[in-house]
Amino acid sequence: MLKLNHHPKLFKVFVLFVFFQFLLFFPFKEIGLINFTSSVPRGFYFFDDGQITKNDYVAVLNMYNYPLVKKIIAVPGDKYVLSLSGVYINDVLIGKYNGGPTVNIDEGILKKNEYIVLGENVKSYDSRHFGKLSVNDLLKLKRFCKGK
Q1: Distance separating alpha carbons of residues 16 and 144, to the nearest angstrom
Q2: CA nearest to 70, candidates 128, 29, 26
Q3: What pTM was computed for the model?
Q4: Domain residue limits, the chain
Q5: What count of Cα atoms within 13 Å lies in the side-chain half-sphere of residue 65?
Q6: Which region, left, alpha or beta, applies to residue 65 given φ > 0 means left and ψ of -120 to 50 means alpha?
Q7: What's the Cα-to-Cα distance from 103 to each of 109, 129, 132, 135, rounded to whole Å?
Q8: What DSSP element (H or E) covers 12?
Q9: CATH superfamily of 4-146
Q10: Each residue's pLDDT tens digit, 42-74
Q11: How far is the C-alpha of 119 from the C-alpha of 128, rounded, in Å?
């Protein structure tokens, strides 16, 4: 078995790895979270108790119990189409289908407390994959600190 105390460089790499895993996968449940992905602008986001509106950033509470940061692109009353050709909101193409493993094909008018989210990266895991979301699946965020 490898002993880390005999390999100081390996120990430092291990400590840094654990630290960054902590930052990446541990949301700051009381105040906000840090986004390191290219799905939306990188940076620190505070939780915000306000009402969700179009173009807001939100944390999508997913099956892995780690929030995904996405942008609201459609709100109640908007017409939407989720198809293999892309995401249309009020008959305007907003995002093309990114060729991921699953696609949620659906269309209609968003009801009260229903939203569509997209990431800014074409490969983002968002409503193209999991469809419309309930307000109960979302936490509004306010961007505080910008990353690169």
Answers
A1: 25
A2: 128
A3: 0.75
A4: 4-146
A5: 2
A6: left
A7: 19, 5, 12, 21
A8: helix 8-25
A9: Umud Fragment, subunit A (2.10.109.10)
A10: 888 888 888 999 999 998 887 666 788 899 999
A11: 10
